[in-house]
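Board notes (copied after class):
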Amino acid sequence: MQHTVKKSRANRIALRSVGGLFFLVALCRLIAVAVLKEQANLVLTALLCAAGLGYGGYLLVQTFRPQAYDITYVFGDSGMTMRFHRGEKKIGYGEITDLGFVVPNEELDYALVQIYIGREQYVIPFMGKSQVGKALYEMLKQKREECAAGNSSPFD
């Protein structure tokens, strides 16, 4: 089975713009305080600038993560392959630390499969195909249990 999760290029550009704006404003304020040698509210200004620099940097870094781009998931017998924007990653089913299946609204035909691999989370949405999502979740759950029991060979 193969499934592609599309990500919006416009969202990445918007988040990079907002992150850059936070970073730029905080940096300009720090430079202004240093050049003008302001003493009033120096601690408050330093805290706000540090928060702005941190949040701007966080937004910028998040837009370059593999999860910010299109990901194609290829599910095989002994593992899955994730094809990213730059490269691919092969994961054995035994490496999955947790799984989740979410149906936000029972009236809508929409479901999410959450795959946790170590500290990373991958969310696979199924819009209009919640039964496919449920089948994938059950298959992943079964494969993961087989790997935990030692009945399956590791992914090569």
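Comment from the instructor: The chain has two domains: 7-64, 71-149. The CA atoms of residues 31 and 37 lie 10 Å apart.
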